[in-house]
Structure formats: structure tokens, C-alpha cells
């Protein structure tokens, strides 16, 4: 169904009121807008790649109870952001809102946090995809040993492919997003059915909803101490917090969406809600199939071990392939979102080389922004070449933490600014009304608490001063985010405040 010219005119008029001419092609439907965030959240990616984080830090309860609990908090964050994207439907999204409601300095730090998060989430998704593809090849191709170097090679190939798809596939990229939704829906359904009917035995309901593990190394493995409930278990919530993220993509492609003020707002919160329900069902199916606990523990909680110990070779490969393809779609969507945000931030002179990064080709594709983001993601993931002492992919979890911290801190700033504005805020057609206060404050507190946890060590070997301290086990997320923030602050005082004024209009009166 084609939108009427009036809708297109209204979208372009609203964009002009916000200060920009229509440069990106506006041909995304409301479903396509929803699809990109749903694809980036990707229950076929996060539920599998970070399953071990929850398994080792809390066990089944971190998943069966932790997932729905944290999902509710994330949905409240989504509601707060839906109101903002409805009022300000621009590709800049998060940093633009902060600039509008707070000023250039707020937009500057929000933009850089958002960019760091988007690059990190792109890198982590593609590395997760490489890990699963490596699992397929190890069980299929003779001579393929599945070493860390081979995984990294696959990661580079996947990252390059996603860059090429986004550069040359622009005419059909929105269609690919739609295909991704149905792959995730039907793929997840098939996996759940396989896990329900193929394994010879399953765990009981009591085990799934009450069993606790502590494989983190903290508190001497205790799963009943205060250390377990206040430190170890919250670390397991990274599974949910990482999986259900990247939903700001609805904002970043709003300049390409028809009827953006409503479509982007609805797409944002709906992508969270549907992913929360689908992801919980998928994770419960995994838990019920996790009967060989010692083997899964030996594999550091890797979800592939759950599948390998409960399924025959053929069904195991089928599930891994379904998940790998879903992760590939997810990474493709991440590059799309990241490149749009990079383009918009550069358009407002927020990045070095802004004139180059804000260019689009004749198809309306920000080619330079795509190349920049993929190369940055490659460098960010280099520590994944080193294996942690306990065999767990701590470098991968650190990249995940960078993504979570960067994205959610970027969400926090405009949410707090919205609360500060109060009745001075002029909402769009999708609004929270008076409920914005309670929703905004709950969202803000959750983000602050989560950000503190995800800069903490994941294992005792990563704690400075510990007798078993090993640099390979260090959670480098706070180092990476801290160094970048210091550099961004220095850049702001050196020259950023002179050339970044927030919104830089490129349309005449």
C-alpha cells in the first residue's frame, strides 16, 4: 500500500521545521520501521550469544525470572523514548533530542555515547554470528578447528558483508528488514518446537524457576550469600539488557519512514514488547532442554552446549543455522542504524571529518558513514583474539558491556532532560501525558543501576590486586568508555564547542 502524497508532504514539512531537507529516501513503511528495531533486538542473537552470562551468574532464575523483570523496565524506557521520537522524528534521534531540550553540550556527549554504543553493538552481534557460524563449520568441515583466530576471521568477513549490503543494497534494505522479522518469528517458533519435542528428557518446572548457579568464581561459588543476590545475579541480567537494546533504530530511520511521528513511536515500544514475549518463550525452551548441567558448565554456559547435549546432530545443526542467519540479519540492521546516526551527527558537525561522513550518494546512501562504523567495530573487537583464563569469552562480554553502557547512557540524558522540561515540552501525536514523570524516573534509575553493574569485573581474575589477577580477564568496558569520554570531553573543550552548535539547519526558510 502506497502512502498518499499528503503524508509524504507532512513528513518533509515536519523535517524542515526541525531544520533539515529530505536527503535520505523516504520509503520505509511503519512495519519496516518496527522491523529494524525488532531485528536489532534479535532474540535469535542475544538469547543465544549471551545465554552463558546469565547461566554462570545466577543460573536458571537469572533467565526465567530475570528476563521478564528486566523487560518491564526496558519497556518503560521505550515508552519514554517513543514520546521523544514522536515529537522529534530525525535520524539524529537521541543526540538531537538532547540538543533540543538541553543544549549543544548535552547533544555532544549524548551523540558520542550513542555512537560508541551503536558501533559496539554492531561489533558484538557480528562476533556472536561468527561464533555460531564457527560452530556450524567445526561440526561440518573437516580440518576446521574453530580457533579464536578463525572465529575472528569469520567476524571480519561478516562485518565486511554487512557493510557491502548496506552500501549496494540500499534499494532493497527496507525489504530485507521485513524479511528479517518473519525469519525471527518463524525461526524462533521452529526452534521452540524442536526443543519441546526432540529431546528425550526435560528439566522440571521447579528446576527452571528456582535453581540457582554461581559459576562466576565470586563468593566461593555460593548461591545463597548476599554477594550472590546483590552482585552475581545482577551480572546475569546482562543477557536481557543486551538483547533488548538497539531499539533507537526506529528513531535513526525516521527520516526514511512514512508517517514517522506515529510510526517510529509505535515501532519503538512494540519492538521491545514483542521481543520480550518471544525471547522469554525461547529462553524457557532452552532451559527445559538443559539437562546435562555438567557439560554446559564445562562449556562456560554456552547455549550451543545446551543444544549439542539435548539434540541429535541434524537438529542441532538446524537450530544453529536458524540462529546464525537471524544473527546475520541482526548485524545487517545494526550497520543500517549505526550509519544513519553517524550521518546525522556528522551533518551537525559532531564528528571529525564531518563533511565526508555526512555525504550521501545518488541513492541516498551514507556510504562513508557505513565504512567508518564497520572499521571502528573491527578495532573495538580486537581483544576478542585473546582467550580468558577460564575459557569464557570475556572480551566478547566486555564489548557487549560497552554497547549496553553507551546506548543506555545515551538514552538517559534526553529522558532526564524531558523530566526537567516538564510542561514546557511540546509532545507529538504519541504522548505519555501526565504519566511521563513516573515512567521517566523509573527508566532513569534503572539505567543508572545497570550502568554501574556493567563496568564491574565479571570474574575474580579481573579484580586488580587479586592473587589470580590476569589482564585477559579484565572487563575493559569501563576503560574503553572512560578513555573515550575523556577524549570526547577534551575534544569538546578544545574545538567541539566552537563548531558543534546542536542542530545545524540545512534548509532555508
From TrEMBL:
GO molecular function: transmembrane transporter activity
Subcellular localization, as worded in the UniProt entry: Membrane
Location (main, coarse): membrane
InterPro entries linked to this entry: AA/rel_permease1 (IPR002293)
TM segment ranges: 30-55, 67-91, 112-136, 148-169, 181-198, 228-251, 272-295, 315-346, 367-386, 392-417, 438-456, 476-494
Pfam families linked: AA_permease_2 (PF13520)
Keywords: Membrane, Transmembrane, Transmembrane helix, Transport
One GO location term (cellular component): membrane
Topology versus the membrane: Multi-pass membrane protein
Superkingdom, taxonomy of origin: Bacteria
Name of the protein this chain belongs to: Amino acid transporter
Species, as recorded: Virgisporangium aliadipatigenens
Lineage: Bacteria, Bacillati, Actinomycetota, Actinomycetes, Micromonosporales
Amino acid at each position: 500500500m502506497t502512502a498518499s502524497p499528503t503524508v509524504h508532504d507532512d513528513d518533509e514539512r515536519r523535517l524542515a521545521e526541525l531544520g533539515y531537507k529530505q536527503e535520505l529516501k523516504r520509503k520505509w513503511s511503519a512495519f519496516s520501521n518496527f522491523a529494524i528495531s525488532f531485528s536489532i533486538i534479535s532474540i535469535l542473537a542475544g538469547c543465544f550469544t549471551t545465554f552463558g552470562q546469565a547461566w554462570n551468574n545466577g543460573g536458571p532464575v537469572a533467565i526465567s525470572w530475570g528476563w521478564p523483570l528486566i523487560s518491564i523496565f526496558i519497556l518503560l524506557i521505550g515508552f519514554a523514548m517513543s514520546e521523544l521520537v514522536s515529537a522529534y522524528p530525525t535520524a539524529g534521534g537521541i543526540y538531537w533530542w538532547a540538543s533540543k531540550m538541553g543544549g549543544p553540550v548535552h547533544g555532544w556527549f549524548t551523540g558520542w555515547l550513542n555512537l560508541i554504543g551503536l558501533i559496539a553493538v554492531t561489533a558484538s552481534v557480528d562476533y556472536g554470528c561468527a561464533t555460531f557460524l564457527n560452530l556450524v563449520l567445526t561440526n561440518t568441515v573437516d580440518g576446521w578447528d574453530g580457533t579464536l583466530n578463525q572465529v575472528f576471521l569469520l567476524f571480519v568477513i561478516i562485518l565486511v558483508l554487512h557493510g557491502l549490503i548496506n552500501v549496494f543494497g540500499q534499494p532493497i534494505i527496507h525489504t530485507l528488514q521485513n524479511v528479517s522479522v518473519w525469519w525471527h518469528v518463524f525461526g524462533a517458533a521452529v526452534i521452540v518446537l524442536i526443543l519441546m519435542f526432540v529431546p528425550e528428557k526435560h528439566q522440571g518446572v521447579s528446576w527452571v524457576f528456582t535453581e540457582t548457579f554461581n559459576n562466576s568464581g565470586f563468593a566461593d561459588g555460593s548461591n545463597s550469600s548476599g554477594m550472590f543476590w546483590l552482585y552475581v545475579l545482577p551480572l546475569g541480567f546482562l543477557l536481557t539488557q543486551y538483547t533488548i537494546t538497539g531499539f533507537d533504530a526506529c528513531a535513526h530511520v525516521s527520516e526514511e519512514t512514512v508517517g514517522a511521528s506515529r510510526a517510529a513511536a509505535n515501532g519503538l515500544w512494540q519492538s521491545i514488547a514483542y521481543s520480550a514475549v518471544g525471547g522469554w518463550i525461547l529462553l524457557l525452551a532452552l532451559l527445559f532442554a538443559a539437562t546435562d548441567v555438567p557439560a554446559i558448565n564445562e562449556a562456560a554456559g554456552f547455549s550451543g552446549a545446551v543444544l549439542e547435549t539435548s539434540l541429535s546432530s541434524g537438529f542441532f545443526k538446524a537450530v544453529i543455522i536458524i540462529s546464525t542467519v537471524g544473527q546475520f540479519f541482526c548485524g545487517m540492521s545494526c550497520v543500517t542504524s549505526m550509519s544513519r546516526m553517524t550521518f546525522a551527527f556528522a551533518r551537525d558537525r559532531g564528528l571529525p571529518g564531518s563533511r565526508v561522513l555526512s555525504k550521501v550518494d545518488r541513492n541516498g546512501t551514507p556510504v562513508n558513514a557505513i565504512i567508518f562504523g564497520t572499521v571502528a567495530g573491527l578495532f573495538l573487537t580486537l581483544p576478542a583474539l585473546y582467550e580468558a583464563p577460564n575459557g569464557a569469552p570475556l572480551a566478547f562480554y566486555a564489548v557487549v558491556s560497552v554497547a549496553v553502557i553507551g546506548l543506555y547512557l545515551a538514552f538517559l540524558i534526553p529522558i532526564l532532560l524531558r523530566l526537567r522540561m516538564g510542561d514546557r515540552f511540546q509532545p507529538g501525536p504519541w504522548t505519555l501525558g501526565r504519566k511521563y514523570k513516573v515512567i521517566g524516573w523509573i527508566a532513569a534509575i534503572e539505567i543508572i543501576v545497570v550502568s554501574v553493574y556493567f563496568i564491574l569485573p565479571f570474574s575474580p581474575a579481573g579484580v586488580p590486586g587479586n592473587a589470580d589477577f590476569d589482564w585477559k580477564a579484565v572487563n575493559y568496558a569501563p576503560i574503553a568508555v572512560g578513555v573515550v569520554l575523556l577524549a570526547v570531553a577534551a575534544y569538546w573543550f578544545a574545538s567541539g564547542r566552537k563548531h558543534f552548535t546542536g542542530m545545524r539547519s540545512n534548509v532555508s526558510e
